[in-house]
Amino acid sequence: MGQSELCLIAKAFAFLLLVPGILGWGKEGHYLICKIAEGYFTEDTLSMVKELLPASAEGDLAAVCSWPDEIRWKAHYRWSSALHYVDTPDFFCNYNYSRDCHDTHEHKGRCVTAAIYNYTRQLESAYKEMTSEIRYNLTEALMFLSHFIGDVHQPLHVGFVGDLGGNSITVRWYRRKTNLHHVWDNMIIESALKTFYHSNLTLMIQAIQTNISGEWYNDVSAWRNCALNHTACPNPYASESISLACKYAYKNATPGSTLEDSYFLSRLPIVEKRLAQSGIRLASTLNRIFASEVKVAEI
Ligand SMILES: *[C@@H]1O[C@H](CO)[C@@H](O)[C@H](O)[C@H]1NC(C)=O
Ligand SMILES: *[C@@H]1O[C@H](CO)[C@@H](O)[C@H](O)[C@H]1NC(C)=O
Ligand SMILES: *[C@@H]1O[C@H](CO)[C@@H](O)[C@H](O)[C@H]1NC(C)=O
Ligand SMILES: *[C@@H]1O[C@H](CO)[C@@H](O)[C@H](O)[C@H]1NC(C)=O
Ligand SMILES: *[C@@H]1O[C@H](CO)[C@@H](O)[C@H](O)[C@H]1NC(C)=O
Ligand SMILES: *[C@@H]1O[C@H](CO)[C@@H](O)[C@H](O)[C@H]1NC(C)=O
Ligand SMILES: [Zn+2]
Asked: Which residues lie in coiled coils (predicted)?
């Protein structure tokens, strides 16, 4: 391979890193979230998920939770790429649906929180109004919903518009050059796997499950809760994310800085708790969608 080809590849790669929210949580993050969620599915959810999954999943939701990242740059799905995140005004450190939920062309309702409502509605209407014709691909609805509930919990998926959710903040992760968004999508989880879990994702999942049934037990019912008996409630998750982004992600991570042990060790507990919350909330959202008894309030 010639010098110029290498250079082109490097440029292409650099460009990819600059695209807002290119990956969401990385593959490990999304797998972990969906694995955690699976442990809390009701019987109804288990059987509906099995029915909706594509054959390639071999019955395991976690196997397809990164699907929206794999297809988002294909021509046929490019419309979906704005649905992975929602950016907020620089340094406001708060989120407001009507102000913030739009894409870069100011099209309203093109953002992650709207997408969560969208796919919840598609699944719910197909499930609860058996008579109505099915207008959407519910296999895709399930995969998008499972992925986006993960994404909205990644603090920098609700970051500042000016730095593309940290994508344009170049930093070093130990010796490696990367950007702040990628640190939160991938590097913290990858370093944790290597440092604490013998590079074994199952061990990390188990450690988080142990905290869900121990350390965090008293908080879990509040995590599940959805105000006003709504089926999905992504807005508070987005508010939490931007607040954590300001308090932890952006803090001491200015352009050009090197992030090492002190950043890693203080942020890892935040990441692990967000992964746990995503899993619990994905399960409870699906459980509400596929609850067999029709709620009086919704008739
Ligand atoms: C959210 O933004 C809209 C539109 O900019 C504004 O009218 C509304 O007052 C804001 N809501 C809150 C709670 O700040
Ligand atoms: C809602 O889902 C449909 C089908 O995937 C898609 O075409 C549309 O862009 C989605 N809108 C949002 C805001 O998620
Ligand atoms: C629904 O979407 C899945 C995943 O993209 C695809 O494999 C399947 O063929 C689609 N089903 C229909 C009926 O279009
Ligand atoms: C990872 O840990 C799990 C749980 O202890 C174990 O069953 C599995 O064999 C381990 N995987 C590898 C590749 O070591
Ligand atoms: C479990 O909770 C403890 C106490 O809050 C925390 O220090 C630890 O990092 C957590 N571990 C995981 C895997 O979340
Ligand atoms: C939520 O639903 C429960 C049980 O269906 C009901 O008792 C409660 O009043 C509802 N709350 C609101 C705010 O609608
Ligand atoms: Zn994503």
From this structure: none
Residue 203 CA: nearest ligand 4 atom is 2
DSSP 151-190: HTTSGGGG-BTTTTTTTT-EEEETTEEEEHHHIIIIIHHH
Taking the centre of ligand 6 as the mean of its atom positions, its distance from the CA of residue 224, in whole angstroms, is: 15
Rg (CA), the chain: 19
pTM (predicted TM-score): 0.90
Which residue has 């199952």 as its token pair? 202
What six digits make up the tokens of 220?
């879990």
Instruction: Provide, for the chain, the percentages of residues in helix, strand and coil under a 3-state DSSP scheme, each rounded to the nearest 5.
Output: 65, 5, 35
Residue 211: band (very low, low, confident or very high) from pLDDT cuts 50, 70, 90: very high
Q: Tell me which residue of 43, 213, 233, 72 sits closest to 144, measured CA to CA.
A: 72
Ligand 4 centroid–CA 206 distance in Å is 11
CA of 197 to the centre of ligand 4 (A): 10
Residue from 196, 203, 206 whose mutation best tests the ligand 4 pocket (most atoms within 8 A of CB): 203
Q: For the domain 26-291, what is the CATH code?
A: 1.10.575.10
pLDDT digits (tens, 9 = 90+) for 215-250: 999 999 999 999 888 999 999 999 999 999 999 999
Report how far apart, in Å, the C-alpha atoms of 254 and of each of 49, 122, 170 are. 42, 41, 8
